[in-house]
Amino acid sequence: MILAPALKVFWVLAALLAIQSLIALREVFRFLAFVRRRRREPPGDFLPRAAVIIPCKGLDAGFGENLQAFLTQDYPHYQLVFAVAREADPAHAALSEKLRGLPQASLVVAGEAEAQGEKVHNLVQALGAVDPAAEVLAFADIDARPGQDWLHSLVARLADPGITVSTGFRWYLPGTGFASRLRAAWDTSIATMLGEHGRNFAWGGSMAIRASDFRRLQVAERYWKGTVSDDYALARAVRDSRGRIAFEPRCLVASHEESTLAELLHWTNRQIIITHVYAPHLWRLGLAAHLLYATTMLGGVALIFAPDITLTARIGIAAALAAIQILGVAKGVIRTVVARETFPEEQDLRGNSYWTLEPIVPWLMLYNFVVAGFARRIEWRGTVYELRSMSEVRVLRRD
């Protein structure tokens, strides 16, 4: 039978994909269990003086609400340092008005970045305004809205001397449009890779490190030099020092953002291009995993419609493809549970987006990983960068 070799190849690929899918499903179950356990446990009483550095550019939707969330943290002694590139930025006027009369908050005008990303440049310049008494440095993004215990929970993990960096992650909540819902399904598939293990990565929108470790690792001088990625660079510094990154589920931060399909493609491509440059091993693994998925699914469909295949073989192939899809949808269902339990205040949460759009996510991911294999240019808020290497970036155009 001419199709016999093709069938054998399909079943080998299907078996590999099934194993990969089962492992991924197990990891999502573990993520849910870890989130539940950490939320039941008190965060601890480790409350050293902390400084929170927040780079800003433009006025995102919900800017005022997000800012208020940072100003009202349930934490005894903390400083807020906001940084913008220039006074003409709309965020500067908004922050100046809101921060007036607040001694614990300051605003830094960082100036234009020349040899690094604007966000990283803002962070580096903001370090000069940090209170020397601060024992912990925390970093956040203004487009996220943390809960009142965010800073307490993030810093408390550093009570363990074996932990170098504590991190949360963004959790996109589905909006009203298709692109916003797909973004939520896409991004939470990355969020649930975090957990109680040694493979965690840092996220720049919610991460903390002891000030002494930040200086010891020379993060600003060595790792943030010539980069656009504050978090990948910090994670590399931790790995180089054989340190540990701990994920704190209480620091999952709700993100609300509507987007068009074009904006979604631009945003997802940027995430994976950055991954390719700053964590090439992760890009290779991701590309291989999604090529396996696409080859198995497309090969299976082609065999089902092949003229010389038996009915029994067709049914078997269809059942295998359906089982793989069900495993993927199951992951989406668990993410819906995570979202509902973590953000109970979101009454209008369109949680079914996490599982109804799950079958589309691998195809979008494959597109992103392939594009990232050939692209080195990204645009972030009006500035175009060429990422030449982990430690070299070129500014091509500014808004």
Biggest sheet, in brief? 7 strands, mixed
Using only C-alpha atoms, the radius of gyration works out to 22 Å
CATH topology of the largest domain: Spore Coat Polysaccharide Biosynthesis Protein SpsA, Chain A
Number of helices: 14
Estimated structural class: alpha/beta
Note poorly predicted spans: none
From the structure provided, what is the oligomeric state, counting identical versus distinct chains?
A: single chain
Overall mean confidence score, pLDDT = 94
**Based on the structure given, which CATH architecture of the largest domain is correct?**
Alpha-Beta Complex
The top-level CATH class of the largest domain is Alpha Beta
Reading side by side through the largest sheet, how are the strands ordered? 3-2-1-4-6-5-7
The separation of the N and C termini measures 62 Å
Note the run of SSEs as H and E. Answer: HEHEHEHEHEHEHHHEHHHHHEEE
Give me the CATH superfamily of the largest domain.
Answer: Spore Coat Polysaccharide Biosynthesis Protein SpsA, Chain A
Number of separate strands? 10
Strand content: 15-25%
The total tally of domains equals 2
The global form is globular
Helical proportion?
40-55%
